[in-house]
């Protein structure tokens, strides 16, 4: 029944959303890419918070349903009939009555299947686009003919830009930079490369009482130096998010003081490198939201930054939707993890390849463990963790790796900072 209703409901949401946008004409900033979209969306929203009346996608609402929810300013109604009635009532109220509608919408957009972004772009046309990263093997690649087809779809919002409109790209993303040559947009680069308009120095870990509490890095813009922060999180993607937002401010001519004032409020979203206190004074790096090869590489590099940890433990769940690239990518991650971690705990059938590769790469077999699911891994780890350990937890959404994070929390009330804590999610196995 749900599948039958999905198309007409999506069509009605799109129709109402287009009408709302025609009436209020907000500036639309779209965030696209394979990794780091939600962190970047939140950073752009923080950057704009002192500049204008704005609204950003809640959580990771980036689909043909999520984007209309953001445009309407409503929450996901899930399966509640009454909540769906409220959604359509709110849309009609916006259309037929005056409202104090946001001047700017920050829309995260994503694609699971071919054509997803084309449907979204029929709802909303961007005035500015931020592309986070288009890696060699993108997430959801199993649904596409080639990795290049995924990258082409994820770059689609940039093709929709008007001539001279702002396009913000990572300075190390050769795919995006090459594709940008086929647009008439004005490109602004952010990243660690010397040619970046917002050039980031190597991030450093911030410590309090010997415990990591976030990252900071110097951003050089037009010969001036500024400091960017990612409080409560670890990993270069977490510092790249405010860098991308700062680049957006530069491209949109937003005063530096306003942009930095807004970015001071930025906190990385749940499940994206968030630092939490674990049992026995251990440190948890919560990367449980989702996973892909590129994101896992960065997460392992984040773990390696904790040089004062007694042990660095990588808990890695299956990376899904990789199709024919799955075995190779899990093996490659296992080889990389063997060089970055003292122990590897793999979760899921695909991650058995991670275990095998880690041992082949030289990690002692006694320090490599495989589990079928997150619950079994969580139970085993509760007896394993010791004071001074640093534990990275990462895996695709369906692996439910947040259950491992929750089991290892030093303070159970910190579960409010985890992903997928909604009632609807908690009901799922």
Assign the CATH superfamily of the largest domain. Mur-like, catalytic domain
State the total count of DSSP E strands: 16
Major β-sheet, in short? 10 strands, mixed
Number of helical regions:
16
Write down the CATH topology of the largest domain: UDP-N-acetylmuramoyl-L-alanine:D-glutamate ligase
Helix proportion of residues, in percent?
A: 25-40%
Domains, number: 2
Instruction: Note the overall shape.
Output: globular
Mean pLDDT: 95
What is the CATH domain class of the largest domain? Alpha Beta
Unreliable spans: none
Relative strand content: 15-25%
Task: Note the gap between the termini.
Answer: 21 Å
Just name the CATH architecture of the largest domain.
3-Layer(aba) Sandwich
What can you see in these coordinates?
- With 429 residues, the chain is an alpha/beta fold.
- It folds into two domains: 2-263, Mur-like, catalytic domain (UDP-N-acetylmuramoyl-L-alanine:D-glutamate ligase, 3-Layer(aba) Sandwich); 274-426, Alpha-Beta Complex (Protein-Tyrosine Phosphatase, Chain A), CATH 3.90.190.20.
- Helix content is 38%, strand content 20%.
- The protein is built from 16 helices and 16 strands.
- The chain has helices at 2-24, 37-48, 66-72, 81-96, 116-123, 147-154, 156-159, 174-180, 236-251, 256-263, 293-304, 326-340, 352-360, 374-382, 402-408, 423-426; strands at residues 27-32, 54-56, 104-108, 128-131, 166-170, 186-191, 198-200, 204-208, 211-221, 224-231, 274-277, 283-287, 311-317, 343-347, 368-371, 389-394.
- Strands 1, 2, 3, 4, 5, 6, 7, 8, 9 and 10 form a ten-stranded mixed beta sheet that branches. A six-stranded mixed beta sheet has the order 11-12-16-13-14-15, with helices on both faces.
- Strand 9 (211-221) and strand 10 (224-231) form a beta hairpin.
- Helix 1 (2-24) crosses helix 3, helix 1 (2-24) packs parallel to helix 4 and helix 2 packs across helix 10.
- The radius of gyration is 21 Å and the shape is globular.
- The model has no long low-confidence stretch (mean pLDDT 95).
